[in-house]
Write a structure and sequence with these properties.
Elements lengths: L1 E4 L3 H13 L7 E4 L3 H11 L2 E2 L2 H7 L2 E4 L3 H10 L1 H4 L3 E4 L6 H5 L6 E7 L8 E7 L5 H11 L3 E5 L5 H28 L4 H22 L3 H7 L6 H11 L2 H21 L1
Parallel strand pairs: 1-2, 1-4, 2-3, 4-5, 5-6, 7-8
Antiparallel strand pairs: 6-7
Helix pairs in contact: 8-9, 8-12
Function: Catalyzes the reduction of 1-pyrroline-5-carboxylate (PCA) to L-proline.
GO molecular function, one term: pyrroline-5-carboxylate reductase activity
Organism: Mucispirillum schaedleri ASF457
């Protein structure tokens, strides 16, 4: 049912998430890659089928194009006739639905920007439907992808912002967790324990924001006592400009994404 062209990190994350969610069996996923050994590695690891591009397209009704942005249009042009009756899901940044539909007006395009935590069904998958997508196409897409985490339809004008916020931030969070674990080690904790504690603290804090729907500032105040250790640490973060650094880092990532869109 699901064909995947491109066997990189995001493809692997999506495969792992789909199998974890039990939405599809591994025998219903076919993968190709220009370097076929990468597809074969995914086949060995997850039990999916490795094939060439033509076989991927012919055997499946929905095709995930997980190639680099510079290669996406070339793939669409090369296989436009074979893809004409398929649902095409693109994860390439900077390539608009209009860019893709200009290759062939009959193409049925869904543009989406998943982040790597879809691997454990805790990701974000924002998506936009092209003009040729009908209700049955939407149902197929939702059936396969909706269990990968937060599944949200957005306006295409916002997809670069969403991509930067959710796609880049996992790397930033990993760095924060690493720094927290460094602090734990400095306090005398074993590295493995420090990493586990830091990761759980971040996971729990994110869950509190998401599940309580309370503003982060309100939740912050609930754990901040007058003249206590938490406010002492918060003051240090402010003096080091951490808040501004986070804003700046995400906006720099957004600006870089916009450059891809203009190429």
């Amino acid at each position: 049912m699901l064909g995947i062209i491109g066997a990189g990190n995001i493809s692997e994350a999506i495969i792992a998430g789909i199998l974890k969610s039990k939405t599809l069996d591994c025998k219903n996923i076919v993968v190709s890659n220009y370097n076929q050994s990468k597809a074969e590695k995914l086949s060995l690891k997850y039990g999916v089928t490795a094939a060439d591009n033509i076989e991927v397209i012919k055997k499946n009704s929905i095709i995930l194009l997980a190639v680099k942005p510079y290669a996406l249009i070339n793939v669409l042009e090369l296989y436009q006739n074979e893809l004409a009756d398929k649902v095409i899901v693109s994860v390439a940044s900077g390539i608009s639905i209009n860019d893709m539909e200009n290759v062939n007006k009959r193409l049925k395009i869904i543009r989406t920007m998943p982040n790597t935590p879809v691997q454990i069904c805790k990701g974000v998958l924002a998506y936009v439907y092209g003009a040729n997508i009908v209700e049955n196409d939407k149902n197929i897409f939702k059936t396969i992808f909706s269990k990968l985490g937060m599944f949200i339809e957005i306006d295409e004008s916002k997809i670069d912002a969403v991509s930067s916020l959710t796609g880049c931030s996992p790397a930033f969070i990993y760095q924060i967790i690493e720094a927290m674990s460094d602090a734990g080690v400095k306090m005398g904790l074993q590295r493995e324990l420090a990493i586990s504690l830091s990761a759980m603290a971040v996971q729990g804090s994110g869950g509190m924001v998401y599940n309580t729907e309370m503003h982060p500032a309100v939740l912050k105040d609930k754990v901040t006592s007058p003249a206590g250790s938490t406010i002492e640490g918060l003051a240090e973060l402010e003096s080091k400009g951490v808040r501004g650094a986070v804003i700046s880092a995400l906006y720099k990532a957004y600006e870089k994404t916009l450059l891809f869109s203009k190429k």
